[in-house]
User: What shape does this take?
Amino acid sequence: MTPRHTRLVIMSPADTDSLIEQATDEVDLSLLEWYRALSPRERLRVASKNAAVLERLKRAAATNR
Amino acid sequence: MPPPPTADLEALIEALIAGGVELIVVGGAAAVIHGAPTTTQDLDIVPRQHPGDVTRLLDVLRGLGARFRPVRPDRDIEPTEEHLSGTGQLNLITSLGPLDILLRLHDARGYDELLAHSQEIVDHSLRFRVIDLDTLIEIKRSTGRAKDALVLPLLLAIRAKREP
Assistant: This one.
């Protein structure tokens, strides 16, 4: 059996901030534009539906493992 | 029928508002409302705890069959007025999915402290308060949790886009 290892990476707040700033620059703004065109109700519906789909996929993957 | 494992965010907010509950939406649902294309499994709210508020919240929770999660045969606990009058964080499951009631945030701020840092959302018949974007970013930065850090780039990009 292959041993499983967990690697603990400790990052300073400065490292984390730097990564977050970098990721912010890489956000696809067209996706944000599409989402912001939705009303608050529509955003809540989309988020709920996507969460339900992801949960079903997660459970299916766990069952088939 | 078992409760859904993920929240129907819109229906949960509607049920709480219809029951006269004064609340501020925080957490992942607040990020969604501000325009972050992300998902969340539960609705996080900070409710007001003025006289009468706890009774109204408890009535709504009873209507939704709320229990502390996880529910097990040996652990099937309904929230009580005492729970809702405290300062803790109640992780519940309802007929509309998971609902986290944060009587205080991790930094000890409750509804009264957050009210000035919230904004009203009006969408047709739905009217409720959500934590404002700057405060949401501040909270997500301060928790130190990986799942909060993940949504920060989206929130920062949304804020940058709003600024002239």
Summary: The mean pLDDT of chain A is 78. The longest helix of chain A spans residues 40-64. Chain A touches chain B at residues 16, 20-21, 23-24, 26-27, 29, 31-32, 34-36, 39-41, 43-48, 50-52, 54-55, 59 (CB under 8 Å).
